[in-house]
Amino acid sequence: MKDSTKQYFYSVLRQTWQEFRAIGDKLGKQLMRTPLPRVLMLCIGLALVITLIPLALSLFVIFMLVKLFLLVVMMGGRAQRNQAAEQSFKQHQWSHKEAEDAQFVRVEQITYRRDER
């Protein structure tokens, strides 16, 4: 059983190699018939494509990471401001101790003004 699978994989790899070799031979023959300036332009174009695509992808990833970093920093700053606002609000609320320190004033008479129209 192992022998038949090895033979199958071997035949598949051999056939794949033969196909790539045939394509390479066709490309080589076509390249030999192509004038040198055109070959030079093809090589320069291929080099640009090979260098520009990774550059664009890496710049995209870098800008996304910067955006994510700034988002995390902004969210952290908002959380700290909210926490500081809550603490200052708690400090400004009345507590029982402050109520004990307050003096009570007795109001004996309250007069109301009527609106004169």
Topology pattern, helix = H, strand = E: HHH
Counting DSSP H or I runs of 4 or more residues, the number of helices is 3
- Measure the end-to-end span: 112 Å
Q: How many strand segments?
A: 0
Q: What do the pLDDT scores average to?
A: 83
The best one-word shape is elongated
Biggest beta sheet attributes: none
Low-confidence stretches: none
Q: Can you give the helix content as a percent range?
A: over 70%
Rg to the nearest angstrom? 41 Å
The percent range for strand residues is under 5%
Q: Name the structural class.
A: mainly alpha
Short descriptors:
single chain, 117 residues, mainly alpha, 3 helices
In short:
This protein is mostly helical. It is built from 3 helices and no strands.
List the helices and strands and how they pair.
Elements: H1 2-33, H2 36-92, H3 96-101
Q: What would you say this structure looks like, in words?
A:
With 117 residues, the chain is an all-alpha fold. Among the domains are: 1-33; 35-81. The protein is 81% helix and 0% strand. The protein has helices spanning 2-33, 36-92, 96-101. It is elongated.
